[in-house]
Amino acid sequence: MANSVVLCAGLRVVRGGVQILSAFSARIEEGAVTGLLGPSGCGKTTLIRSIAGTQRIAGGRVEVLGRSAGDPWLRRRIGYAAQTAAVYTDLTVEENVRYFAAVTGAPRDDVDRVLDAVDLRPFRRVLTGRLSGGQRSRVSLAVALLGAPRLLLLDEPTVGLDPVLRAQLWDLFGRLTDGGLSLLVSSHVMDEAERCDQLLLMRDGALLAQDTPDALRRRTGTDDLDEAFLALIRAAERGDGDRAVA
Question: Where are the domains of the chain?
Fold first, then answer.
């Protein structure tokens, strides 16, 4: 088994008196694209924030690269891109990246490196507000790559994009893991699950299953991942489902 970059054990998160995550336990493998799949409102964003160290937890533990989530040592080793692009539309692509490089203390030559990594060098002098949705997502990804992190947390980076742009981003995610990065990518679109090395399937703040796409199909006796997910939900509702935690 590959080394784990994230370990969640019995994680509980409560907000406003409502339990968002319940005894959530999972591992995220090194050098892989791990897909975090599930319907909107199931707790994906809360889990990502817990791993990033920005979410107060009520119980359990989260370890990232062998440290407790939120440890200052992790700040330059985790890249995080939230659902809403945290970039300035009135700045050029390069100005955005240079600004965030200064904020994070990343080396000056990081700007060219991350622009090359996300294929945005030809657009470096274009105002970010004039870019397509997919290109703006890549600007956010460039910012997340500053400082050469070992783990990228991407919260629904393809939401609202057309199929062509989504495919381009997923191709980029594959190239990043080929370079040694580990990615956790959340989505509620099940066809994106096919592009992942590992899947975490969530529902109602709990983990339904963790496995490879092929293993989940075999385990549920289904031909596609939509049907596999539904089979796991039905099994959980009957009380005979095995919530597989690696």
Answer: 31-55+69-238
Report d(CA 186, CA 208) in Å as an integer. 15
Residue environment code for 231-240, b if the CB has 16+ CB neighbours within 10 A, otherwise e? bbbebbeeee
Model pLDDT for residues 65-97, shown as the tens digit of each residue: 999 999 999 988 999 988 776 789 999 999 999
Backbone angles phi, psi at 15, to 5 degrees: -130, 130
3-state secondary structure the chain: CCCEEEEEEEEEEEECCEEEEEEEEEEEECCCEEEEECCCCCCHHHHHHHHHCCCCCCEEEEEECCEECCCHHHCCCEEEECCCCCCCCCCEHHHHHHHHHHHHCCCCCHHHHHHHHCCCHHHCCCEHHHCCHHHHHHHHHHHHHCCCCCEEEECCCCCCCCHHHHHHHHHHHHHHHHCCCEEEEEECCHHHHHHCCEEEEEECCEEEEEECHHHHHHHHCCCCHHHHHHHHHHHHHHCCCCCCCC
The structure tokens listed for 42 are 């199931």
Tens digits of residue pLDDT in 186-242: 988 888 888 999 999 999 999 999 999 999 999 999 988 889 988 998 888 777 654
Q: Which numeric CATH code is attached to 31-55+69-238?
A: 3.40.50.300
Specify the pTM: 0.87
